[in-house]
Design a protein that fits this description.
Radius of gyration: 12 Å
Order of helices and strands: HEEEEEE
Distance between the termini: 21 Å
Oligomer: single chain
Largest sheet: 6 strands, antiparallel
CATH superfamily: Jelly Rolls
CATH class: Mainly Beta
Strand content: over 45%
Low-confidence stretches: none
Mean pLDDT: 95
Shape: globular
Helix content: 10-25%
CATH topology: Jelly Rolls
Number of helices: 1
Number of domains: 1
């Protein structure tokens, strides 16, 4: 699954990075000046956006447009994600 995501992003000229967090970790609200595409590899995470909460579990993706305010809460089993910018 992560190889598919990373291959797809590479085919479109985008590089990926991976990150993970422990259960219950919280990101405060912030924005990015670039388009961010996330793929949940393991565990779960809830993104809190102006349009409502979006839960990602393994294999699911989310695209955040530049300037979109968002916060996040990591699920009870932690999370591992891959993301691409641009």
């Amino acid at each position: 699954m992560n190889d598919d995501f990373e291959a797809e992003m590479a085919a479109s000229g985008r590089t990926t990075s991976r990150w993970s967090n422990e259960p219950g970790y919280r990101y405060s609200e912030h924005t990015h000046p670039y388009r961010k595409t996330l793929c949940c590899l393991e565990g779960s995470i809830v993104f809190h956006t102006p349009d409502g909460d979006v839960t990602l579990e393994a294999g699911e993706r989310l695209v955040l447009q530049p300037g979109t305010p968002h916060a996040a809460s990591v699920g009870p089993d932690g999370v591992r994600c891959a993301e691409a910018h641009g």
